[in-house]
Design goal:
224 residues, alpha/beta, Rossmann fold, 6-stranded parallel β-sheet, 10 helices, 46% helix
């Protein structure tokens, strides 16, 4: 069986689904419990980072065991709310189906813990399209380091230059470009303005994935 020629690597939050508010509320609950500050600016400035980077940055906690325990508590709060219902963002399902039909490999490349990703894939019923998953536990360095996307490409058996990443955050765009990949940036979740995504190198910026076809993705790769 021959390896796929091209691949699409998906970020999760803000790209597949918009669960940012659930994450924010989970952080707020945790912050109150441990009597630490947490603001919208803190959230915006670290969204897309890994928990082992967020907690030391915001609260100056560097004990690995404590950081791990706090991160687990936050994610438990998040999943409790996410289980009540999560929907795919517009255009996601149709694009994933079209890419699969055209022979594209697809992967998840996310800073989220694996349990979060598994929950989202289960609830949205798109795991059939996903050939590899790279989560927080698989990486040592968070975005904008390209490790997450390079590892996803490696697991799919596709060269980085033959991959398109779908992202919504500047730090994710930077990671993909640092890995030598093309990037589609989606703005429908509203967390980052067009100009910031353009400034860090997004190749295509769209309001929703309803505006992107499998042919668009293919054209980005053959013209790379």
């Amino acid at each position: 069986m021959s390896l796929p020629q091209f691949a699409v690597i998906w970020d999760v939050d803000g790209t597949l689904v918009d669960t940012a508010e659930l994450h924010y509320q989970a952080w707020c609950v945790l912050a109150r419990e441990i009597d630490q500050p947490f603001t919208r600016a803190d959230f915006t400035g670290t969204f897309g980072w890994r928990n082992p980077e967020i907690i030391p940055k915001l609260w100056g906690i560097h004990d690995d065991a404590v950081v791990t325990e706090l991160g687990k508590r936050k994610e438990d709060y998040y999943r409790d709310e996410a289980k009540k219902g999560v929907a795919l963002l517009p255009g996601v399902r149709a694009l994933m189906e079209a890419l699969s039909a055209a022979g594209f490999a697809q992967a998840i490349g996310s800073s989220a813990p694996r349990n979060n990703i598994d929950l989202i894939l289960e609830m949205t019923k798109v795991s059939i399209h996903v050939g590899a998953i790279v989560s927080m536990e698989d990486t040592r360095r968070g975005k904008p380091d390209p490790e997450v996307f390079l590892l996803a490409a490696q697991r799919l058996g596709v060269e980085p230059a033959r991959c398109v990443v779908i992202e919504d955050a500047p730090v994710g765009v930077q990671a993909a470009k640092a890995g030598g990949m093309r990037v589609v940036a989606v703005t429908c979740a509203g967390h980052h303005p067009d100009e910031k995504l353009r400034a860090v190198g997004a190749d295509l910026i769209v309001p929703t994935l309803e505006h992107v076809t499998q042919q668009d993705i293919a054209q980005m790769l053959v013209s790379f």
